[in-house]
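Section handout 9: paired folding examples.
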Amino acid sequence: MSTNSVLTIVDLDSPGAPPHELDSFGGVIVAVSSGDSIPAGSVADAWAHQASFTIGASFAIGETDTDDSRLVRVDSVDETLEQIRKTVSANPAAAQICDDVLRANLPGTGTRQGLTTESLAYSTLQAGPEFARWLAAKGRCARHEQDDAVLLDRVDDTVTITFNRPDRHNAFSNALRAGLIDGLQTVLADESITSVVFTGNGRSFCSGGDLVEFGLLTDPADAHLARTRHSPALLLDAVRERLGARFRVDIHGAVLGSGLEMAAYCGTVVARPDTVFGLPELGLGLIPGAGGTVSIPRRVGRWRTGYLAMSGRRIDAQTARAWGLVDRVVEVS
């Protein structure tokens, strides 16, 4: 085991003493496994459960994956650990708070409760030095204005909601947020609508938050109220609860940050083979803030969600399918 003030690395081949509950307050814990599986009931198993996530080497030819959502297979353990060290050391407060929120939003946590926890943590980081440093380097702030940022189309009992900002890979702005909220409220108000398709025009479904708009809300308390009182996540979850698998999101291209967070709420997630997924928020000194600490763990567990956030790495559509983040990968002719 190696430890610094923020990051602890645990070798599951020789983990030493079992973990204590308080270990999770010592910072981010990354476990490393060289085996094909983690023996149930072992000290290694206890550490894998306690860790933020576990990484292991990619499978050799002929080996198959397991359903252990605590484990992420990577091409190079050493290179991955180095990337995690860089990400965590650059924004240690964001990394530890992200870990705290993922642990707090346990399986079964209600959407409103989870969003509140996430947003309060996000607001804390908005008032902190890590985000301030990124914001100072970013420069210009400007609001995106567009009347047709989100398109609504109905054919019979099916509504299609389409992000319509293709020149910016549908970067999620206040205009897109307002349009999406209007569309989802329309669906919820009309019981004759029995299926919904959610998608995006252009090269990407949604490349994440519009970074140009970051910094427009200077009061973290006001920002928290805006996120929780005007939340697409609550409405996405309500539509999924009503329609189930008939609430489908068709995704492609860059599905990053808030784009991934929102897509994960939908009942059926269909991706094109070119789709890439990631959570880049830690690089800004923030955590996922569009409900992703609720929606993504519901699909892949807190461990793989933590890996996406703390490594800064992206995964492809086939990996997302294997994890359960995507339900189908479909070629488009």
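Moving on to protein 2 of 2.
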Amino acid sequence: MVEQLELYSLPLFGVLLIADFGLRWTGTARAYALNDSLCSVAMGLAYAAMSALVRTSALLALAAVHSIAPFRFALDAGAMTWVGAYLAVDLAFYWFHRTIHEVRIGWAAHVNHHSSQHYNYATALRQSVVEPILEPFFMAPVVLLGFHPIMVLTCLAANFIYQFWPHTEIVGALRPLGAILVTPSHHRVHHATNVQYLDKNYGGTFIVWDKLFGTFEPEVEQPTFGITHQLDTHNPVRATFHEWIAIAGDLSRAGTAREVLGYLLRPPGWSPNGPGQTSRERQARALGER
């Protein structure tokens, strides 16, 4: 079921990419860069390979969790059960996405998705080879609610497919849909390095989670895309592992267990000696300077 959904989505991805590429030549949005796009495609292929490799293990692990759920929905349950499963998966994705931004070892796995200074459908393909290993852990609570593992993984795949289309500069806020759904405007904020935009708009399909949990930020000023310390490479291997290498360097200099845990589990930019460069610290300083 998951494989069929992913296969059927490929033509849609192709149509969106071609349309986005073509429309950029007639507007003011920034064009695609070949070396940047090829880097993104290479990381997307690595992600797809890893996803296929771990899918069976993830399904078996979630099936073990499902076996101890106090109540279990059948896989052929009605439409409302699928709606409930999708909502639960999207909420679990919100917390997964927030965690991999705000815990440094999670950020090491996710940063490559943000490392492009372009924002387009090639960038949407720039995915992590580690995230398919981490995602099932965050889906376990959904399975414990009684939703079948195949149902959960199918909803997760549909959620991932939805997240492809907001990666464009040529679509605006889409009111009133933007009051509920994640739109390109919301996701441009998420990919921006502007201080007020850092660590905002984590939602996969529904933006309401960000509004409920205090991480929503509207698009006001022009976003600058990429990461706070921009990469100077289009090598997909370096783009994938640069933050892991940085963590290893910090750990080699750590003098205490507190520092080791801080470098691993605190937000990116954390410093053991006074104020650091975490998103929240930078935002607080920016507010103080106003």
